[in-house]
Design brief:
Layout (H helix, E strand, L loop, with lengths): L15 E5 L3 H12 L7 E4 L4 E5 L3 H6 L5 E4 L8 H23 L4
Antiparallel strand pairs: 1-3, 1-4, 2-3
């Protein structure tokens, strides 16, 4: 079976914006708002940092609701040097290990 993976399913970083919320409540409110949209909206949740990635074209949904957030720009890894990509990957692995250690100790 062949599955076509296109920009609708996995949009490029240039089409996305990160929204970091100060509180879990605002984060959950935004996620719920996105879910309630009549048309499907792409988003990805980073729950450990109260951050959602949404398409720039859907940002109006959040701003129209009056939610307060800090905007984060996403970078496409293909646009970075191999050294920069390696550093990002190391940091992601370290963060993941911290989360796993906390869970193993029952702290999360």
């Amino acid at each position: 079976m062949w599955i076509e993976i296109d920009d609708e399913l996995f949009p490029p970083a240039s089409e996305l914006v990160g929204l970091r919320f100060d509180s879990k409540e605002e984060f959950w409110r935004c996620e719920q708002l996105i879910w309630e949209q009549p048309e499907w909206c792409y988003y990805h949740a980073y729950r450990d940092t109260n951050t959602l990635a949404v398409r720039k074209r859907d940002l109006h949904i959040v701003t129209d609701a009056g939610l307060k957030y800090t905007e984060i720009e996403f970078v496409d890894l293909q646009d970075l040097s191999p050294e920069e990509v390696a550093q990002i990957q190391r940091e992601a692995i370290q963060k993941g290990m911290e989360i796993l250690r906390k869970r193993a100790r029952g702290e999360e």
